[in-house]
Write a structure and sequence with these properties.
The protein is mostly beta strands. It is built from one helix and 23 strands. It has a single domain, classed as Porin (Beta Barrel), CATH 2.40.160.
Length: about 400
C-alpha cells in the first residue's frame, strides 16, 4: 500500500511539472525507483545514515583535526549526526552518438545549524557529471584517488579523496582500464607564518593518468599526476601582504592501491602514495604543496603515506577490518619561521571494526580508532574514537 501510494504521488508530481509531456511513463521498482520515457530512464536513490561518535579528547579523526597536547579541551564528546545522508538522481538517455549518462548527487555536509533545536545542515554538491562514450565532464572523484579503499567506517587518516570539476577520457576492457583526466588546479603553499594559502593563480590543469588492472587474484591501480604550481603577486596568510613577484614549479605524484584476495571472501587492501607538490591530494589538505618565502619563491615539499587493512568475513553478513594508515610531509623550515604548532608533520591511525548487514542495502557497524598527530614544533596530540553507524541505501 505504501509503495503504491509513493508511486502515485511521484507520478502526479511529474505530470504537474510537465517533465515528461507527450511521453509514455512507466514506473519500475528495482533496487531504486526508475521513471522511463521513450528515450530516457531516470533513477532516484540515496542513503540515510546516522553516525554516533564518541571522541576523547574532543576532536576529529583527521590529519589536522586532532587537538594538540594532553587532555586539551573536553575529556570526551558525544555527537549524533545524519549529515552524511545522500540523495542522487541518475539519467540514461539513448542518442545518435550512444548512451548519455548523467549523475547529480548531494549530501548534507554544507553549512551546519545548531544542535540546540533543529540540527539543520545545508545541502552540498558531491557529484554533477555526464558521460558519453569514453568521455566524461563535470564534478566527480579525482582520478588520483585510491581506486581500492579500506572497508572502514571512519575515513582513513591518509585518505587521497579529492572531488572536483574535470574532463576525462577512459578506455575499458575486461582486463584493464585506462583514464586520462584534466582536473581543476588549486595550488596550496605555506608561508613564513605557518598559514596555508591558496594563491588562486593557477593556469594549467592538473593532469592525471590512471591504470587499473583486474587480475583473478584481485585488483591493482596506479595513478600518476603532473601539476604546475604557480603564484603571481600572491597575498600571504595575514590577508594584507601582497608579494611583488611571480614564481612557479612543477609538481608530481603517484598513488598505488590494490586488493589481494586470500581465502574465502577475505582480502588484503593497501595503498601507498608519494609526490613532490602533492599538497591537497593527501590527507584532506593537511599538508601544503610547498612553501613560499617572504620574497615569493616557491619550494615544493615531498609528502607520502600509505595504508593497509585485512578484511575478514565471519559469515556472509558479518565482517571485520583491521587497518593502519599513515601520512607525513617534509616541510621546508627555511621558509617557515613562525607558528610551528600550525605546521603538520605526520599522523598515523589504527582502526578495528565489526560490520553487520542484516538485510540487503543496510549496514550496522561499530569501529574503534586511535590516531596521533605531530607538528613541527615537536608537540603532538592523540585521539581515541568510537563510531557507531546505521545506514540504509534506497
Amino acid at each position: 500500500m505504501k509503495t503504491n501510494l509513493k508511486k502515485s504521488l511521484l507520478f502526479s508530481l511529474l505530470l504537474s511539472l510537465n517533465l515528461f509531456a507527450n511521453e509514455e511513463i512507466v514506473i519500475i521498482q528495482k533496487d531504486s525507483l526508475e521513471l522511463k520515457t521513450k528515450n530516457t530512464v531516470l533513477s532516484v536513490g540515496g542513503r540515510v545514515q546516522l553516525d554516533t561518535e564518541y571522541a576523547w579528547p574532543k576532536g576529529i579523526h583527521s590529519a589536522k583535526g586532532i587537538v594538540l597536547g594532553e587532555s586539551v579541551g573536553e575529556s570526551g564528546h558525544l555527537n549524533f549526526t545524519a549529515k552524511n545522508s545522500r540523495l542522487w538522481v541518475k539519467t540514461r538517455t539513448h542518442s545518435e552518438l550512444g548512451v548519455v549518462r548523467a549523475l547529480i548527487e548531494t549530501d548534507f555536509k554544507g553549512v551546519e545549524g545548531t544542535q540546540t533545536n533543529t540540527n539543520s545542515h545545508g545541502i552540498r554538491l558531491r557529484h554533477a557529471f555526464v558521460e558519453l562514450q569514453n568521455w566524461g565532464a563535470g564534478q566527480t572523484n579525482s582520478a588520483f584517488n585510491a581506486d581500492t579503499t579500506l572497508d572502514i567506517l571512519l575515513t582513513a587518516i591518509n585518505d587521497t579523496l579529492v572531488r572536483q570539476p574535470l574532463i576525462r577520457y577512459q578506455y575499458d576492457t575486461t582486463l584493464f582500464n585506462y583514464t586520462i583526466s584534466f582536473e581543476q588546479p588549486e595550488s596550496t603553499l605555506i608561508d613564513s607564518s605557518g598559514v596555508i594559502i591558496t594563491p588562486q593563480d593557477d593556469v594549467v590543469p592538473d593532469i592525471i593518468n590512471r591504470f587499473i588492472y583486474y587480475p583473478k587474484w584481485g585488483q591493482l591501480a596506479l595513478s600518476v599526476m603532473g601539476r604546475y604550481i604557480n603564484q603571481d603577486h600572491a597575498v600571504l596568510g595575514d590577508g594584507i601582504t601582497q608579494l611583488n613577484s611571480r614564481d612557479s614549479a612543477f609538481g608530481y605524484g603517484a598513488n598505488l592501491s590494490g586488493k589481494i584476495k586470500v581465502f574465502n571472501l577475505d582480502d588484503i587492501r593497501f595503498a601507498s602514495h608519494y609526490g613532490k607538490g602533492v599538497g591537497r591530494y593527501l590527507a584532506y589538505n593537511a599538508y601544503a604543496a610547498g612553501s613560499i618565502s617572504d620574497e615569493g619563491k616557491i619550494t615544493l615539499q615531498p609528502s607520502f603515506g600509505g595504508d593497509i587493512g585485512y578484511r575478514h568475513f565471519w559469515n556472509n553478513k558479518l565482517r571485520t577490518t583491521i587497518a593502519y594508515s599513515y601520512a607525513a610531509t617534509k616541510n621546508n623550515l627555511d621558509d617557515i619561521k613562525l607558528n610551528l604548532n600550525k605546521v603538520n608533520k605526520s599522523v598515523h591511525s589504527s582502526q578495528i571494526n565489526l560490520i553487520w548487514t542484516p538485510i540487503k542495502n543496510s549496514l550496522l557497524g561499530i569501529e574503534y580508532a586511535y590516531a596521533k598527530r605531530k607538528v613541527e614544533s615537536g608537540e603532538d596530540g592523540e585521539i581515541k574514537m568510537v563510531n557507531i553507524m546505521i545506514r540504509y541505501d534506497f
